[in-house]
């Protein structure tokens, strides 16, 4: 067995792990990276990249059916589902070199394509190597959570790790789980000619503002997605091509079943107890992402909390400071945006209205504006959307957007919250006309409307100035 001593050992080559490895090696550290599966992790191979590529295919198909209002005769698209999936894999292959073993080895990282497990507080062992490190970063990510539903183990089912290898279009896809993954894949598949039913035990898109979520769900239902809320999947029966999902609101027959009920941290292989690392469903970390073993940090999904690729990258860049320079670093979550890439999109940063009301009470001001008053949205016939901004003492503490390109619009607000800027920064911005970005300026202006246009003292001051300057 080869023995290796290294400054930084990174376990996991997803977004968080690769951020740490690239940053540390380019700053002069000796870095070793372990990855037992695919370089690039879940996002590249099973998550963000393939799902958004399939969503793009669905958008092209939908555009062919929805041009009547623009003088374009709708046509029924001829859909080649297998070709759409081949496109998914072509896109993965296009992006893969950025995350490849070859690229990281060129940077100077020692890459070992094996799984690792702790043998003590600073040592990790693989099949062929025993690695001792000054600092260790666990970035093993998460995997699809498959709940213990009676009969599920006896029928074939899909997860996000197997869906993109399916080359035959489902005649009827049942999705258990009405979160972002479930709703994105529901819309993509209904646009690609599949019958789709979503079964959700509580409320679909339940982590988002209900008013905003309803805008999205209304569009999905209009396109043909059958969304069954408040229905628990109790049992599964049948066989390949003829599966039945039994719920407390009735039975649902389908050709294919997709489980999309959440994620679980990948910690089973690690032998964390041997390293003195406390954990439950995920690794327990402090605000500096350090575990109960001071030599070990955890980043991304495996650290619990928000499970997004950009959060893993943020974590990775944060732990570089204490690992390489011994400087204090803390992560925060109030400025982290997230997006559900349905059409229309659903985006959030900071607190929802309900959360802000609970925390700030009467100090909260809620500003709202509809897309129907935005000229660019009107020209494109995309007026069913809304922006909601929660403001406390002049500073936004949360923003919810439902509408076209909501994921792009949320970036401005993420910046304001990250830098703790006041809402006046948006009102002083000059947005190009006509763009959807004017929506942000319009809603921000509402904060000053009662202070300027509805204030008696402002009106008296203006009249006084006008009399004196005649």
TrEMBL record:
Q: Which residues form the FAD/NAD(P)-binding domain?
A: 7-316
According to the record, cofactor stoichiometry and binding are noted as:
Binds 1 FAD per subunit.
| Residues bound to NAD(+) | 177-184, 200, 262
Q: Where is the Pyridine nucleotide-disulphide oxidoreductase dimerisation domain?
A: 336-440
Q: Which InterPro entries match?
A: FAD/NAD-bd_sf, FAD/NAD-binding_dom, FAD/NAD-linked_Rdtase_dimer_sf, Pyr_nuc-diS_OxRdtase, Pyr_nucl-diS_OxRdtase_dimer, Pyr_OxRdtase_I_AS
Detail the disulphide connectivity of this chain as listed in its UniProt entry. Answer: 43-48
Recorded E.C. number(s)? 1.16.1.1
Q: Which SUPFAM superfamilies match?
A: FAD/NAD(P)-binding domain, FAD/NAD-linked reductases, dimerisation (C-terminal) domain
Keyword Disulfide bond recorded: yes
The UniProt annotation places FAD binding at 52, 116, 140-142, 301
Q: What are the GO MF terms of this UniProt record? A: flavin adenine dinucleotide binding; mercury (II) reductase (NADP+) activity; NAD(P)H dehydrogenase (quinone) activity; oxidoreductase activity, acting on a sulfur group of donors, NAD(P) as acceptor
Q: What class of enzyme is it?
A: oxidoreductase
This protein's cofactor list reads: FAD
Q: Which UniProt keywords apply?
A: Disulfide bond, FAD, Flavoprotein, NAD, NADP, Nucleotide-binding, Oxidoreductase, Redox-active center
Which Pfam families does this one have? Answer: Pyr_redox_2 (PF07992), Pyr_redox_dim (PF02852)
Q: Note whether Transcription regulation occurs among the keywords.
A: no
* Gene3D superfamilies xref list: 3.30.390.30, FAD/NAD(P)-binding domain (3.50.50.60)
Membership in a protein family:
Belongs to the class-I pyridine nucleotide-disulfide oxidoreductase family.
Protein's UniProt name: Mercuric reductase
Recorded source organism is: Jannaschia rubra
Q: Which gene encodes it?
A: merA_2
